[in-house]
Write a structure and sequence with these properties.
The complex is a heterotrimer of chains A (616), B (257) and C (150). Chain A is α/β, with parallel strands linked by helices and 616 residues long. In chain A, a hairpin with a 3-residue loop joins strand 3 and strand 4 (84-86). Chain B has two domains: 3-79, Roll (Ubiquitin-like (UB roll)), CATH 3.10.20.740; 129-247, no CATH class. The longest helix of chain B is centred in the middle third of the chain and has 18 residues, at 81-98. Chain C has 150 residues and is α+β, with helices and mostly antiparallel strands. Chain C has two domains: 3-59, no CATH class; 71-149, Glutaredoxin, CATH 3.40.30. Chain C has helices at residues 3-12, 20-31, 36-46, 50-59, 79-83, 86-97, 139-149; strands at 71-76, 103-104, 110-115, 127-129, 132-134. The radius of gyration of chain C is 17 Å and the shape is elongated. Classes of the chains: A alpha/beta (616), B alpha+beta (257), C alpha+beta (150). Chains in contact: A-B, A-C, B-C. Chains A and C meet through helix 2, strand 11, strand 15 and helix 18 of A and helix 2, helix 4, helix 5, helix 6 and helix 7 of C.
Amino acid sequence: MKKINDIEELKKLREKLIKGKNKEGIVISVCMETGCIASGSYEIYKELLKEVKRLKDKKVKVLKTGCHGFSEVDPAIVIYPEKIFYIKVKVDDIDEIIEKTIQKREIIERLTYKDETTGEIIPYLDQIPFYKKQKKLVLSLNGLIDPEDINDYILYGGYSALSKVLFEMEPEEIIEEIKKSGLRGRGGGGFPTGKKWEYCRKAEGEPKYVICNADEGDPGAFMDRSVIEGNPHSVIEGMIIGAYAIGANDGFVYIRHEYPLALKRLSFAIQQAREYGFLGEDILGSGFSFDIDIVRGGGAFVCGESTALMASIEGKVGEPRAKYIHTVEKGLYEKPTCLNNVETWANVPFIINNGWEKFAEIGTDTSKGTKIFSLVGKVKNTGLVEVPMGITLKEIIFDIGGGIKGNKKFKGVQTGGPSGGVIPEKYLDLPVDFDKLNEVGSMMGSGGMIVMDEDTCMVDVARYFLNFLKEESCGKCVPCREGINQMLSILNRITEGKGKIEDIEILKEISDFMQKASLCALGKTAPNPVLTTIEYFYDEYVAHIEKKKCYSGVCKDLIEYFIDPEKCTGCQLCAKNCPVSAIEGERKKVHKIDIEKCIKCGICFNVCKFNAVERK
Amino acid sequence: MENVEIIIDGVRKVVPKRITILKVAQELKIEIPTLCYHPAIEPYGACRLCTVEIEKNNRKMFVTSCNYPIENEIKIETNNENVIKIRKLILELLIAKVGYKGKVKEIAEKYNVEPRFGVGDDDCILCGLCVNVCKEIIGVNAISFSSRGINRDVSPPFGKEAVDCIGCGACAFLCPIGTIKIEDLNEKRIITKINANLELEKCKICGKYFVPKKFIEYIKNKIGNVELDVFLICDECKGENYIKRLASFSLTGGKNE
Amino acid sequence: MKKLEVDKILEKNGWKKNKIVGILQDIQDVYYYLPEDVLIYISEKLNIPLSQIYSISTFYKAFSLKPKGKYRIKICLGTACHVRGGYIISEFLKNKLKILPGETTKDELFSFETVNCLGACAIGPIVVINEKYYGQMDVEKTEKLINKLK
């Protein structure tokens, strides 16, 4: 790759790329990110490459891309220009796809998405309900570009925002633009991004740093991974623009080590950006220099907290420190530091390219633009969705998500990870924005949305998060470390049927205390899952405590499986499936569960065709 | 230096900017309890016992007085009902962890804490004084925190013997609950909890074992080529003659006589 | 310990003290754990107190001070996997392999650990064996996988 020395050269390159693109006829795009690869998309990709090569038709191209979002139907492929969407594709299907769809332009109905209620065949991506209510700004190029080819990004206007700011805008103007757009931090807190940049620009001290927080630790959230795996250059471009606005020459991306593919794609993208001269000395001949270093996280949730993250970059353990002096003044190596999360950075090029008005026209009064959510749990259409701020929970879960799996009853939706809460059915019409979610005791967080149904026990959910945090807290301050420990003991007792009704008040008391006295946001927000479940699912706590019952059938000590001798036919299906060999019985004779061995996984309950296994 | 006016427990006071609340309180003889604070060590902010309530720009919040630098005109309440509630719960949680030991016991009694979560038997409240004194003041880094969350502990590397320990005893001196103890037995010094095992040197005068060999070596390396006899005399023998003897050495080495 | 290999890693990281977390990651990538002698060597070479390296090695979950088995199994216990029964797979493995999370079987064939979210939530529960991801897992599928490897 040759270095691009000025705007003209960049323009020429883009024109050349567009000419090449126009010559293309059919593009088969295969989603190749962690989730899709796990579902088998890599094998599909290889086979497609092989078969297309055989066609000897230069107008047909196979493209590996970031995620199209609809993980439930993976591996899926999209065939452009019509955007024909084939789901759950197998290697064996490929011959037929080439023969019918690529060569004869015929739709193979068997591979299309079908509406679950009407049975209607929906062959085109845009018509599928999962995509209809989405609005893609950040993910707009996912599915269109090869994340490992910088030319694809440039083709669709990539790095034009960078050339605009370097040659047409003063740093203060950029900050003003971001402020007016109303962009708020996508990492969870929702702090106005423009303000943060302004504080950092005005802070005294040199050098200054920018950091991209890609330590997406909230369990159930994978937006940032998808952005990096699908369009890493959008994050890099956002960071360069931010650095220019703030006056920083060094940047860091702190990325989870649990994301090997994202790490690989990001490293690759940074390398390519360097070769083209978007990173390094004298970017595009502007005189501005900036480069990015990647730092791998070590597997610590607390490192999502800014001061802990900075300590980790400095080569220390990820212990947070007091933020009485903000990190925009004294951050990394005690220098002014501007930290934003992946999705925040990725929004920046759009705002610069299209103007703040275009961004601000989307969303609510206080929350502008779009937000990416990972829609997971007990919902039919799991996947990654990008929606305008202000959309209701109901629209996300029922219109996009298709409702609850197995036609069970919706119980709640968990947002904000361990710092958030569970939102009950009565708030389904709540418009999703930073402030509205806070009002009901949860928070936006980074964007995990875990849907829960009647089989999810809310006391267990609260216990789950504290159990998560007991090891993920750094353990430095007493309120967080010991508070979590005590609350967890109480919740364990309740799920074992040994709770007392006054435990609920004690849980609230410790929660209040942790919110006030903990050192960092991890401890201050740790009680949220407990508080929201107590508030919205109080009856479940009471049932566990007073009736010793877990009606969702989750809390092991409160349930027992047994076989009804009247119904058991001795088919041995349960015994074969029992993972711990706890079921005994000869063929055609009544079976029995050994309570000592039983781990209460419920497999027998689910596999029995005669409803002979009962839960008490 | 710039000054700023504050109100602390109802009293107006002009203080230098960026001074911590705890320092102001100490000057005014206002008692704020601490467990992880020591004036010689960088405030760590772990025990949270020194939490106070402040009002800044009409917003109330809780901050730890040991490390909160006063920047603007703020109102501070060091001992109100909310603050006492927080301190009591901290102590209650610590008693659940380690029981009634040392300074925890002392302060808990002052605050009339009634333990609802039981009385524990761990040996460490993780205040960090030992780790931090060893790092910041002594410069040896023999021990550190290990693990995280509820598994956090203070430990020598690999949980084995503290190989880098020089046996100075600063950690034992600062441990607020008396877990770290120095035990000298003839030619051996053992320091509990941090698992140090050191050889002792004899006093040049009385012949009693009293100082770890590694400690002497460490001093030697720190201050260069100095005659170390003065460090090889035990406290008892130093007596009245100590200053005289000390004066007879120069730091460049050798005796003056 | 192969000094050359470790030196190469130190070289790659510019022999910089502040890169210690990354250096340990690289060591872990090679050995699948952090051998004590390597840590002592790094401590001496980079002049970082051993206590600090020990502290880092035990703070971050990515690191292990114990050797791993030939097959390194990770069970995701993120929220999405949890509500879909990831914990049942973990319970099952405890029984099947007779080890606790973080341990290695006596024949050094398997080690298994639980992780807090691998970010492939939409196809949970997730099981990862030596960097390969398996989605929509249950006890039955896991058992088949393990039996194949035995």
